[in-house]
Design brief:
The protein is an alpha+beta fold. The chain is built from 3 helices and 5 strands, in the order H-E-E-H-H-E-E-E. Strand 1 and strand 2 form a beta hairpin. Helix 2 runs antiparallel to helix 3.
């Protein structure tokens, strides 16, 4: 039986409704990820922008656009500037767009992690 964190579901819903971003750290599959919780629409638009810059991937833009019309936008956590916490380091250096089903989030906290060098 899979249960989801109702508070996290409500946070995701409010972020999607208000357009507000904030720092969050989540645990998925035993790995920790830190980034900015972002609205689903922004996450989709950012990925569409990346796909449009690569000629071989432009055909995938429609898939992301169709996802924008999905009726259940609160099923996933969308992060921007995401980095995996790996020992004392954060990978990759620049961060990236990350999406995971809420049901797979094992734990979370407000705020983001920093590498020991920061």
């Amino acid at each position: 039986m899979t249960t989801t964190d109702k508070l996290l579901e409500r946070l995701v819903k409010r972020v999607n409704q208000t357009g507000i971003f904030f720092d969050i750290t989540i645990v998925v599959g035993g790995s920790m990820y830190t980034g900015r919780l972002c609205p689903r629409a922004n996450w989709l638009d950012g990925n569409i922008g990346v796909l449009n810059q690569i000629d071989e991937l432009k055909d995938f833009v429609d898939d992301f656009a169709q996802e924008g019309a999905a009726t259940d936008p609160e099923s996933y956590v969308h992060l921007s500037q995401t980095r995996q916490v790996f020992g004392n380091n954060l990978l990759p250096n620049q961060g990236g767009a990350f999406r995971v089903p809420i049901a797979q989030v094992q734990g979370w906290m407000l705020g983001h992690m920093k590498s020991v060098d920061n």
